[in-house]
Specification:
Structural class: mainly alpha
Shape: elongated
Low-confidence stretches: 217-235
Number of helices: 9
Length: 235
Amino acid sequence: MPSTRRDPDWLGLSEASRLLGVSPATLRRWSNAGRLRVFTTPGGHRRFSRSALERLLPADRSRRPTLGSAGLTPTQIARTYRRASREGAPELPWVLTLSDDQRMLFRERGQLLAAGLLQHLDAPEPESAAHHLKEAAVNATEYGRVAAGLGLSLSQTVEGFLRFRMPFHQELAVAARRRGFDTAETTGLLEAAERAMDRLLVATMTGHSVALAPRSGRGRREPAAALSTRQGSQS
Protein backbone atom coordinates (compact mmCIF):
# COMPACT_ATOMS: atom_id res chain seq x y z
CA MET A 1 0.00 0.00 0.00
CA PRO A 2 1.37 3.50 -0.84
CA SER A 3 2.28 5.97 1.84
CA THR A 4 -0.59 7.97 3.31
CA ARG A 5 1.47 11.15 2.79
CA ARG A 6 0.61 13.21 -0.31
CA ASP A 7 1.97 11.27 -3.30
CA PRO A 8 1.73 12.72 -6.85
CA ASP A 9 1.12 9.20 -8.19
CA TRP A 10 -2.07 8.94 -6.13
CA LEU A 11 -4.97 11.40 -6.41
CA GLY A 12 -7.83 12.31 -4.13
CA LEU A 13 -11.44 12.00 -5.24
CA SER A 14 -11.79 15.61 -6.47
CA GLU A 15 -8.49 15.57 -8.37
CA ALA A 16 -9.29 12.23 -9.98
CA SER A 17 -12.78 13.31 -11.05
CA ARG A 18 -11.37 16.48 -12.66
CA LEU A 19 -8.75 14.46 -14.51
CA LEU A 20 -11.38 12.16 -16.03
CA GLY A 21 -14.03 14.84 -16.44
CA VAL A 22 -16.67 12.92 -14.47
CA SER A 23 -18.47 13.63 -11.23
CA PRO A 24 -17.14 12.40 -7.87
CA ALA A 25 -20.28 10.26 -7.51
CA THR A 26 -19.51 8.49 -10.80
CA LEU A 27 -15.94 7.87 -9.67
CA ARG A 28 -17.20 6.36 -6.41
CA ARG A 29 -19.48 3.99 -8.33
CA TRP A 30 -16.61 2.91 -10.57
CA SER A 31 -14.31 2.25 -7.63
CA ASN A 32 -17.05 0.36 -5.75
CA ALA A 33 -17.51 -1.80 -8.85
CA GLY A 34 -13.77 -2.55 -8.98
CA ARG A 35 -13.18 -0.69 -12.25
CA LEU A 36 -10.43 1.51 -10.78
CA ARG A 37 -7.37 0.85 -8.67
CA VAL A 38 -8.02 2.57 -5.37
CA PHE A 39 -7.03 2.37 -1.72
CA THR A 40 -8.50 4.00 1.37
CA THR A 41 -6.38 5.97 3.82
CA PRO A 42 -6.68 5.41 7.59
CA GLY A 43 -8.77 8.59 7.62
CA GLY A 44 -11.28 7.06 5.20
CA HIS A 45 -10.26 8.98 2.07
CA ARG A 46 -9.97 7.26 -1.30
CA ARG A 47 -6.78 7.53 -3.32
CA PHE A 48 -6.71 6.72 -7.05
CA SER A 49 -3.74 5.64 -9.14
CA ARG A 50 -2.84 8.43 -11.56
CA SER A 51 -1.41 6.00 -14.11
CA ALA A 52 -4.59 3.89 -14.05
CA LEU A 53 -6.73 6.98 -14.55
CA GLU A 54 -4.60 8.26 -17.42
CA ARG A 55 -5.02 4.94 -19.23
CA LEU A 56 -8.76 5.66 -19.30
CA LEU A 57 -8.22 8.94 -21.17
CA PRO A 58 -8.27 9.03 -24.98
CA ALA A 59 -4.82 8.49 -26.41
CA ASP A 60 -5.08 11.68 -28.51
CA ARG A 61 -7.52 14.39 -27.49
CA SER A 62 -7.45 16.42 -30.69
CA ARG A 63 -9.88 19.02 -29.34
CA ARG A 64 -11.16 20.01 -25.94
CA PRO A 65 -14.43 18.61 -24.55
CA THR A 66 -17.52 20.66 -25.30
CA LEU A 67 -18.93 23.19 -22.87
CA GLY A 68 -22.29 21.47 -23.20
CA SER A 69 -20.79 18.29 -21.77
CA ALA A 70 -19.86 20.33 -18.68
CA GLY A 71 -23.48 21.40 -18.26
CA LEU A 72 -22.99 25.00 -19.42
CA THR A 73 -26.19 26.38 -21.02
CA PRO A 74 -27.67 29.85 -21.62
CA THR A 75 -30.10 29.16 -18.78
CA GLN A 76 -27.21 28.43 -16.40
CA ILE A 77 -25.52 31.69 -17.39
CA ALA A 78 -28.78 33.59 -16.83
CA ARG A 79 -29.08 32.10 -13.34
CA THR A 80 -25.50 33.15 -12.58
CA TYR A 81 -26.25 36.68 -13.77
CA ARG A 82 -29.32 36.97 -11.54
CA ARG A 83 -27.46 35.51 -8.56
CA ALA A 84 -24.59 37.96 -9.03
CA SER A 85 -27.06 40.84 -9.18
CA ARG A 86 -28.68 39.76 -5.90
CA GLU A 87 -25.48 39.03 -3.99
CA GLY A 88 -23.06 41.63 -5.28
CA ALA A 89 -23.39 44.61 -7.55
CA PRO A 90 -26.50 46.76 -7.11
CA GLU A 91 -29.02 47.00 -9.93
CA LEU A 92 -28.14 49.57 -12.57
CA PRO A 93 -30.25 52.72 -12.00
CA TRP A 94 -31.72 52.77 -15.50
CA VAL A 95 -32.82 49.13 -15.18
CA LEU A 96 -35.17 50.19 -12.38
CA THR A 97 -37.03 52.42 -14.85
CA LEU A 98 -37.87 49.50 -17.16
CA SER A 99 -41.18 47.69 -17.10
CA ASP A 100 -41.34 43.93 -16.51
CA ASP A 101 -41.95 43.39 -20.23
CA GLN A 102 -38.92 45.48 -21.14
CA ARG A 103 -36.72 43.59 -18.67
CA MET A 104 -37.95 40.32 -20.14
CA LEU A 105 -37.01 41.58 -23.59
CA PHE A 106 -33.45 42.28 -22.42
CA ARG A 107 -33.23 38.86 -20.74
CA GLU A 108 -34.36 37.14 -23.93
CA ARG A 109 -31.77 39.05 -25.95
CA GLY A 110 -29.11 38.11 -23.41
CA GLN A 111 -29.99 34.42 -23.66
CA LEU A 112 -29.80 34.59 -27.45
CA LEU A 113 -26.33 36.11 -27.17
CA ALA A 114 -25.25 33.42 -24.69
CA ALA A 115 -26.58 30.63 -26.91
CA GLY A 116 -24.77 32.00 -29.95
CA LEU A 117 -21.52 32.38 -28.04
CA LEU A 118 -21.65 28.83 -26.69
CA GLN A 119 -22.32 27.47 -30.18
CA HIS A 120 -19.42 29.51 -31.52
CA LEU A 121 -17.01 28.30 -28.83
CA ASP A 122 -18.07 24.65 -29.20
CA ALA A 123 -18.11 24.59 -33.01
CA PRO A 124 -15.91 21.74 -34.36
CA GLU A 125 -14.82 23.59 -37.52
CA PRO A 126 -13.70 27.20 -38.16
CA GLU A 127 -16.47 27.70 -40.74
CA SER A 128 -19.13 26.66 -38.25
CA ALA A 129 -17.60 28.84 -35.54
CA ALA A 130 -17.63 31.85 -37.88
CA HIS A 131 -21.26 31.19 -38.79
CA HIS A 132 -22.41 31.09 -35.17
CA LEU A 133 -20.42 34.20 -34.28
CA LYS A 134 -22.00 36.05 -37.21
CA GLU A 135 -25.47 35.06 -35.96
CA ALA A 136 -24.56 36.19 -32.44
CA ALA A 137 -23.38 39.54 -33.86
CA VAL A 138 -26.76 39.99 -35.55
CA ASN A 139 -28.46 39.44 -32.16
CA ALA A 140 -26.02 41.88 -30.54
CA THR A 141 -26.89 44.51 -33.14
CA GLU A 142 -30.56 44.00 -32.38
CA TYR A 143 -29.78 44.32 -28.65
CA GLY A 144 -28.29 47.74 -29.38
CA ARG A 145 -31.32 48.76 -31.45
CA VAL A 146 -33.72 47.70 -28.70
CA ALA A 147 -31.73 49.65 -26.11
CA ALA A 148 -31.80 52.78 -28.28
CA GLY A 149 -35.53 52.35 -28.83
CA LEU A 150 -36.07 52.33 -25.07
CA GLY A 151 -34.25 55.65 -24.77
CA LEU A 152 -31.02 54.29 -23.28
CA SER A 153 -27.81 56.15 -23.98
CA LEU A 154 -24.84 54.42 -25.57
CA SER A 155 -22.98 54.36 -22.25
CA GLN A 156 -25.97 52.73 -20.53
CA THR A 157 -26.22 50.16 -23.31
CA VAL A 158 -22.53 49.30 -23.01
CA GLU A 159 -22.89 49.13 -19.21
CA GLY A 160 -25.68 46.58 -19.60
CA PHE A 161 -23.61 44.50 -22.02
CA LEU A 162 -20.65 44.43 -19.63
CA ARG A 163 -22.90 43.16 -16.84
CA PHE A 164 -23.64 40.17 -19.07
CA ARG A 165 -19.98 39.67 -19.98
CA MET A 166 -18.65 39.04 -16.47
CA PRO A 167 -20.89 36.09 -15.44
CA PHE A 168 -20.36 34.52 -18.86
CA HIS A 169 -16.59 34.39 -18.34
CA GLN A 170 -17.04 33.17 -14.79
CA GLU A 171 -19.17 30.27 -15.97
CA LEU A 172 -16.63 29.41 -18.68
CA ALA A 173 -13.91 29.12 -16.04
CA VAL A 174 -16.11 26.95 -13.82
CA ALA A 175 -17.01 24.68 -16.76
CA ALA A 176 -13.36 24.31 -17.77
CA ARG A 177 -12.41 23.31 -14.23
CA ARG A 178 -15.37 20.93 -13.89
CA ARG A 179 -14.65 19.21 -17.19
CA GLY A 180 -10.91 18.90 -16.57
CA PHE A 181 -9.61 21.16 -19.36
CA ASP A 182 -5.84 21.40 -19.39
CA THR A 183 -4.07 24.78 -19.17
CA ALA A 184 -3.77 25.23 -22.93
CA GLU A 185 -7.44 24.36 -23.49
CA THR A 186 -8.63 26.75 -20.78
CA THR A 187 -6.42 29.57 -22.02
CA GLY A 188 -7.55 29.06 -25.61
CA LEU A 189 -11.20 29.00 -24.56
CA LEU A 190 -11.01 32.23 -22.55
CA GLU A 191 -9.05 34.03 -25.27
CA ALA A 192 -11.59 32.97 -27.92
CA ALA A 193 -14.40 34.17 -25.66
CA GLU A 194 -12.69 37.54 -25.19
CA ARG A 195 -12.31 38.02 -28.95
CA ALA A 196 -15.94 37.05 -29.54
CA MET A 197 -17.19 39.35 -26.79
CA ASP A 198 -15.22 42.26 -28.28
CA ARG A 199 -16.91 41.70 -31.62
CA LEU A 200 -20.35 41.51 -30.02
CA LEU A 201 -19.73 44.71 -28.07
CA VAL A 202 -18.87 46.52 -31.33
CA ALA A 203 -22.03 45.07 -32.92
CA THR A 204 -24.11 46.27 -29.96
CA MET A 205 -22.71 49.79 -30.25
CA THR A 206 -23.27 49.76 -34.01
CA GLY A 207 -26.89 48.70 -33.56
CA HIS A 208 -27.46 51.51 -31.08
CA SER A 209 -25.91 54.12 -33.41
CA VAL A 210 -27.81 52.91 -36.48
CA ALA A 211 -31.11 53.05 -34.58
CA LEU A 212 -30.48 56.68 -33.66
CA ALA A 213 -29.25 57.83 -37.08
CA PRO A 214 -32.70 58.41 -38.68
CA ARG A 215 -33.73 60.47 -35.65
CA SER A 216 -30.74 62.83 -35.65
CA GLY A 217 -31.81 66.44 -35.41
CA ARG A 218 -35.24 65.61 -33.99
CA GLY A 219 -34.51 66.68 -30.45
CA ARG A 220 -33.80 64.71 -27.32
CA ARG A 221 -35.09 61.17 -26.94
CA GLU A 222 -37.55 60.25 -24.25
CA PRO A 223 -36.10 58.38 -21.24
CA ALA A 224 -37.00 54.74 -20.85
CA ALA A 225 -39.62 55.39 -18.14
CA ALA A 226 -41.44 58.01 -20.20
CA LEU A 227 -41.31 55.83 -23.30
CA SER A 228 -42.76 52.92 -21.36
CA THR A 229 -45.62 55.10 -20.04
CA ARG A 230 -46.47 56.45 -23.48
CA GLN A 231 -46.41 52.97 -25.05
CA GLY A 232 -48.75 51.71 -22.33
CA SER A 233 -51.25 54.51 -22.94
CA GLN A 234 -51.34 53.73 -26.66
CA SER A 235 -52.01 50.03 -26.21
